[in-house]
């Protein structure tokens, strides 16, 4: 009788601890981390000017590269789509990758992305992908709006110097 | 099996026993009986001895019937289901799934788009009587695509007596407000047996215990806790005609299964807050959605004589699949087609197959089986999108199997098979080239079954299996929505090959039933997707994933203990574990099943049956690149059934409550794990079944 009781208790107690047990991996399966500072979600970007891009990338082992993609989100059934496509305008599409190999942390700040003057205004998706040396990938997405009326992003000058002071090194 | 043989022998013996002539005399006399001859047809086993397999009965399937057949089968240890959202599942046995598992019905392999990630099996779950699951390589009998195992849907038995019977079934499922109905009629008269079934299922948007999910690092809403556009319907019809006369038996089976179901807006294309909004009934299937129709005709004819049994199986299937999604492309030169502008993908797969088997039993100890088989397949494509090209695929195979019965407690098996395959894919656009490849490979198995003492059984087998690379592995070049990434094929891939060693020990003594079945397998060639680190030039895609040949090891096992607690109360413990390792990337393989344990207390009577179950799933931290770890969880289920007998008829009421405490949990084996979508909440399934 005693033996039976102990026997039955084993699987019942295993039940409770079971969902906590697991094994870990041998290789690097930790994704790199992307902290996107600029542009922010919902930002309006001015057509005809460049985009202030600023982000921090970090990985537990070694970074690989990052890629920026901007494409339209016109078929989002959103009735707030800006003015119908003007004659001669083209939906903006941007896709470019940048190398980050050899680094564990990287701070990136550039104005590489230029929105041409004939870009169609409206809703767009901004996606930042980042891979590490092992092939792990992470992704950050933001909704942005391209318009002619957007404010010019702050000029290079005092404001930018302030931002540089805020960066932290890992 | 032994009992069935005895029964058959006895029945046939009765036909030959001459009526005894009674001597009307009350004095003791010697009565001499005339000679009695007993003839019986020895049941010829085609199954290789020692092969790890489990038989799932119709009752078990009905009690565990979840959303689909695979859902019910995943209750069996060693069998898992890879879910696509809620409601659709693909089979997985011991960590291997997709094209590595053959699902067969009436001996014919079910051919749909097994590689695809957006759908489950096109089989009417109510139509299935009983199933045999082969947990090891079944290549010897089914050729390529059965490397990990096979799920054999067994045909119904030919009734012995003339009868007319049928069944009416109604089922309701709370989590999807789903309603199913199925009607079956069968008739046996003389040498003819006919059975017909019609099933229809409708379900609305699924309920989940979550208010939001993640997509592209944004949290998007789940309004009213129902996954928008996961509604759908299914309609199946099945007709079976069988004829039996003496040693000849023939069956013809015709079935058609039609399914239309919506894709959750958050898992297909680019979702936005707008297309996740309400508007439209939760019963309306809107874009994007998929439509599939599977038509199947099979025929099996068997000629049995004293020593020889010959059987011929022929099959023809058409799997027509369409995926509709509002025209979207980031390729500015592509314009919507004039007809069907929203038809994104179309696959029209036709498969013709045939198998001839000859079984010989020269003595009670030896059984031989020879077979040849051929499968011819053609896939046509259409739609504005592209995933796999049109292709032609042929397979021819020949096998030999021998079962040797050394004694009543020791049996051996040896089997070998040789296959030739040919895949010819058509070029598409400028990025996908024509591929024309020929393959040949062999598979084999050696098995043993040993019963050292009464109540103990030991089984072991070692097998080699292979799998031809499939069209998507050779030629893919596009974004696979169901898997959220750009997949690239490699036209130079070789067949997968591997070895598996199985052991199984079963003990049945003194009210206890214990079975242990460990296994380990090593595949020097195994095809899987690996991240390349190169960025895709296609929009909405991150890095390119390529199909790569990487050596892989799998090991694990199952355990099952059943004992009587007191009276009619039983306790069952079942557990399964699979360890996977990819030698190329030094990680686990994708969709590595987490260790699972089930503790069940059940009560059984001639009329009543009920159970309470605790399903414990361990956390899965062994993942491949870009797969998320999943925390562990405990789920509680309960259910029962009661039978009412009305003369010869029977009314059954089955109730199955799952996830009683509405636990919010993530399933590692779900394609939608990537978007952090929790599984269905508390669900109650009610089934009323009337058999007459």
What can be said about this structure in brief?
Chain A is of the alpha+beta class and 170 residues long.
Low-confidence stretches of chain A: 77-84, 157-170
How would a crystallographer describe the biggest sheet of chain A?
Answer: 5 strands, mixed
Output the CATH topology of chain A. Immunoglobulin-like
Overall mean pLDDT of chain A: 75
- Helical coverage of chain A, percent range: 10-25%
Radius of gyration of chain A: 24 Å
CATH architecture of chain B: Beta Barrel
- First-residue to last-residue Cα separation of chain B: 28 Å
Number of helices of chain A: 2
Would you state the CATH class of chain A? Mainly Beta
Key words describing this protein structure:
heterodimer; A: 170 residues; alpha+beta; Immunoglobulin-like; 5-stranded mixed beta sheet; 3-stranded antiparallel beta sheet; 15% helix; elongated; disordered C terminus; B: 692 residues; mainly beta; Maltoporin, Chain A; 22-stranded antiparallel barrel; 5 helices
Structural commentary:
The complex is a heterodimer of chains A (170) and B (692). Chain A is α+β, with helices and mostly antiparallel strands. Chain A has one domain (28-152): Immunoglobulin-like. Chain A has two helices and eight strands; from the N terminus they run αββββββββα. In chain A, the strands form two sheets. Chain A has a five-stranded mixed beta sheet with strand order 2-8-7-4-5, with no helix packed on it. In chain A, strand 7 (122-132) and strand 8 (137-147) form a beta hairpin. Chain B has one domain (2-40, 53-156, 165-691): TonB-dependent receptor, beta-barrel domain (Maltoporin, Chain A), CATH 2.40.170. Helix content of chain B is 5%, strand content 53%. Chain B is globular, with a radius of gyration of 26 Å. Residues 11-25 and 40-44 of chain B have low confidence and may be disordered. The interface between A and B is large, with 47 and 52 residues.
């Amino acid at each position: 009788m005693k033996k039976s009781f102990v026997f039955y208790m084993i699987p019942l107690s295993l039940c409770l601890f079971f969902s906590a047990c697991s094994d870990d991996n041998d290789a690097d399966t930790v994704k790199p981390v992307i902290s996107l500072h600029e542009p922010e979600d919902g930002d309006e970007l001015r057509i005809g000017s460049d985009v202030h891009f600023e982000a921090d990338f970090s990985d537990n082992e070694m970074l690989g590269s990052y890629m920026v993609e901007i494409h339209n989100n016109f078929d989002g059934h959103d009735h707030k789509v800006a003015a119908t496509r003007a004659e001669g305008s083209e939906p903006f599409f941007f896709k470019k990758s940048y190398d980050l190999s050899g680094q564990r942390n990287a701070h990136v700040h550039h104005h590489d992305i230029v929105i041409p003057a004939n870009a169609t205004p409206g809703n767009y998706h901004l996606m930042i992908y980042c891979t590490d040396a092992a092939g792990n990938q992470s992704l950050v997405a933001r909704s942005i709006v391209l318009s002619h009326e957007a404010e010019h992003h702050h000029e290079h000058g005092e404001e930018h110097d302030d931002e540089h002071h805020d960066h932290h090194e890992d | 099996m032994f009992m069935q043989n005895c029964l058959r022998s006895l029945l046939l013996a009765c036909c030959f026993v001459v009526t005894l002539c009674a001597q009307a005399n009350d004095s003791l006399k010697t009565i001499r009986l005339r000679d009695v001859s007993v003839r019986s047809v020895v049941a010829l086993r085609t199954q290789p001895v020692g092969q790890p397999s489990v038989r799932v009965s119709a009752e078990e399937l009905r009690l565990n019937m979840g959303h689909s057949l695979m859902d019910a089968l995943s209750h069996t240890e060693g069998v898992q289901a890879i879910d696509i959202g809620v409601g659709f599942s693909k089979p997985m046995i011991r960590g291997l799934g997709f094209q590595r598992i053959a699902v067969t019905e009436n001996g014919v392999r079910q051919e749909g788009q097994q590689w695809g990630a957006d759908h489950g099996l096109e089989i009417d779950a109510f139509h299935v009587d009983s199933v045999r699951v082969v947990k090891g390589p079944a290549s010897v009998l089914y050729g390529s695509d059965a490397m990990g195992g096979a799920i054999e849907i067994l045909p119904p038995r030919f009734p012995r007596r003339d009868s007319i019977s049928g069944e009416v079934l109604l089922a309701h499922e709370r989590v999807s407000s789903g309603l199913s109905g199925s009607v079956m009629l069968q008739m046996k008269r003389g040498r003819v047996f006919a059975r017909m079934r019609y099933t229809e299922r409708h379900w609305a948007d699924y309920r989940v215990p979550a208010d939001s999910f993640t997509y592209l690092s944004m949290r998007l809403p789940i309004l009213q806790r129902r996954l928008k556009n996961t509604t759908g319907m299914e309609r199946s019809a099945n007709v079976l005609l069988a004829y039996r006369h003496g040693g000849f038996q023939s069956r013809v089976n015709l079935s058609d299964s039609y399914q239309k179901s919506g894709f959750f807006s958050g898992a297909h294309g680019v979702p936005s807050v707008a297309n996740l909004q309400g508007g439209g009934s939760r019963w309306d299937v809107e874009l994007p959605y998929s439509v599939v129709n599977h038509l199947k005709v099979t025929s099996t004819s068997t000629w049995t004589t004293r020593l020889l049994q010959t059987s011929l199986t022929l099959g023809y299937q058409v799997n027509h699949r369409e995926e509709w999604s509002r025209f979207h492309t980031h390729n500015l030169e592509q314009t919507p087609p004039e007809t069907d502008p929203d038809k994104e993908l179309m696959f029209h797969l036709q498969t013709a197959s045939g198998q001839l088997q000859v079984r010989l039993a020269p003595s009670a100890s030896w059984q031989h089986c020879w077979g040849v088989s051929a499968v011819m397949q053609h896939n046509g494509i259409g739609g504005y999108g592209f995933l796999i090209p049109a292709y032609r695929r042929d397979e021819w195979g020949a096998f030999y199997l021998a079962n040797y019965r050394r004694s009543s407690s020791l049996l051996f098996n040896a089997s070998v098979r040789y296959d030739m395959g040919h895949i010819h894919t058509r070029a598409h656009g400028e990025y996908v080239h024509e591929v024309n490849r020929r393959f040949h490979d062999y598979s084999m198995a050696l098995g043993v079954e040993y019963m050292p003492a009464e109540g103990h059984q030991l089984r072991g087998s070692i097998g080699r299996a292979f799998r031809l690379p499939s069209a998507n592995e050779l030629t893919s070049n596009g974004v696979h929505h169901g898997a959220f990434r750009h997949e690239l094929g490699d036209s130079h891939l070789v067949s997968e090959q591997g070895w598996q060693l199985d052991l199984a020990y079963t003990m049945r003594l003194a009210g206890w039933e214990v079975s242990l079945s460990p296994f380990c397998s090593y595949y020097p060639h195994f095809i899987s997707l690996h991240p390349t680190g190169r960025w895709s030039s296609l929009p909405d895609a991150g890095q390119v994933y390529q199909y790569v040949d990487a050596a892989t090891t799998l090991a694990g096992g199952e355990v099952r203990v059943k004992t009587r607690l007191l009276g009619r109360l039983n306790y069952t413990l079942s557990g399964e574990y699979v360890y996977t390792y990819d030698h190329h990337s030094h990680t686990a393989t994708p969709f590595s099943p987490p260790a699972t344990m089930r503790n069940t207390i059940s009560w059984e009577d001639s009329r009543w049956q009920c159970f309470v179950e605790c399903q414990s799933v361990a956390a899965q931290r062994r993942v491949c690149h870009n797969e998320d770890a999943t925390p562990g969880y405990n789920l509680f289920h309960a259910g029962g059934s009661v039978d009412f007998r009305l003369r010869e008829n029977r009314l059954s009421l089955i109730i199955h409550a799952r996830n009683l405490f509405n636990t919010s949990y993530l399933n590692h084996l779900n394609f939608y794990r990537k978007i952090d979508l929790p599984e269905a909440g508390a669900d109650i399934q009610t089934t009323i079944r009337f058999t007459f």
